[in-house]
Design brief:
Blueprint (H helix, E strand, L loop, with lengths): L1 H14 L5 E2 L1 H11 L7 E8 L11 E5 L10 E4 L5 H6 L4 E3 L1 H8 L7 E4 L4 H4 L3 H4 L17 H10 L1 E5 L5 E8 L4 H16 L11 E8 L5 E3 L1 H5 L3
Parallel strand pairs: 1-10, 4-5, 4-6
Antiparallel strand pairs: 2-8, 2-9, 3-7, 9-10
Helix pairs in contact: 2-8
């Protein structure tokens, strides 16, 4: 396997220049060429931000509706009381319920991509933070996953809304689609994500906010987006 990986990276080296910085469109074009695995690779972006995640007012967290979705069908659990079950089911939720799902989660079940909850169940669901928190599944009002309008929340998630949160190292990661997407759709999704994060710059952050941005496919090397390209997002 290491031999194959070596050959793939050797070939990649002929496509991507290690020290070169790319425009958004050039980065998309290059990363698509580098996605040579036998499966449909995800295209991912990583942004290093000049923030201190230890400070509450510098925790960059939010959501963005990617214009062309992610190429992945998301499994949605709606935790709600009986009055909202029919609405959630009709809107396309994969799982809907209350106490039975609290019990399943308590026992370690987390086989979903997004959990949406109504405000009246958060007292109980919040107690499962040790299970849901590390997996990024805890519903949050800021991300639109704690709401009485469960139908709209489900619709947005299924249409391609993604959540993101800065990690301890000050990096935000996001998948913006699949290698099979055409270049224009990937560029649109990339622009939407970057612009959303740029607009979230906290007033307390000092120095350069966006320090670097890299684009990559699941199995391919990353390419860096130029500072000039990022400046146009402001």
């Amino acid at each position: 396997m290491s031999t194959k990986l070596g050959k793939r990276y050797a070939a990649a080296g002929k496509i991507a220049e290690v020290k070169k910085q790319y425009t958004l469109q050039e980065a998309v074009d290059t990363v698509k060429k580098l996605a040579t695995a036998k499966f449909d690779e995800s295209i991912d972006v990583a942004m290093r931000l000049g923030v201190d995640p230890r400070k509450a007012d510098q925790v960059i967290r939010g959501m963005v509706a990617l214009p062309h979705g992610t190429g992945k069908t998301k499994r949605v659990l709606v935790v709600c009381k009986p009055g909202k079950v029919d609405e959630a089911t009709a809107a396309g939720a994969d799982y809907v319920g209350y106490e039975e799902y609290l019990k399943k989660i308590q026992e370690g079940w987390t086989d979903v991509d997004v959990i949406i909850a109504t405000p009246d169940v958060m007292g109980d669901l919040g107690k499962l933070g040790k299970v849901l928190g590390p997996r990024g599944l805890m519903p949050n009002p800021k991300s639109g996953t704690v709401t009485m309008d469960v139908a709209n929340a489900i619709k947005e998630v299924k249409a391609g809304r993604v959540e993101f949160r800065v990690d301890k190292a000050g990096i935000v990661h996001c998948s913006i689609g699949k290698a099979s997407f055409d270049k224009a759709k990937l560029a649109d999704n990339l622009h939407a994500f970057l612009q959303t994060v740029v607009r979230m710059k906290p007033s307390s952050a000092k120095g350069m906010y966006v320090q670097s941005v890299y684009l990559s496919s699941t199995m391919g090397p990353s390419v860096q987006i130029s500072a000039d390209a990022l400046a146009s997002l402001h």
